[in-house]
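Narrative of activities, Objective 1.

The group set out to show that a structural description can be obtained from nothing but a protein's sequence at a throughput compatible with the screening campaign. Below is one input-output pair from the validation batch, recorded exactly as produced.
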Amino acid sequence: MEASGTAGNFAGGVATPGRGAKEVSVIRQRQAPSAANLPHSHDREEVMVVLTGTVKVTAEKKEAKLSAGDALIVPANTVHWIETIGDSEAEWFLAAPAGVRFLFPDGRVASPARAR
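Output recorded for this entry:
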């Protein structure tokens, strides 16, 4: 996994168009204790499945605490971010349709190589 651009956050493609997938993008993400990614949304629905650790996902004004084995569906265009809770790293899979874009509140649009 490579640094994702946010301190303490690492990500890598598992099943992406660049790895032969035609319709889906699956990313494995790892985040350090107390780290959080930036608020963002996607132009497509995203599914998160926690593998290890505990995270707090804030989506719009709602919060959900997720641990290993938990899953969450984030609707398209829903601003959200993920914060690791506790003293351990957290790791999860993210799945979305191929070509999913990351949309930031400041107007930036990203399509990271790990998702392509």
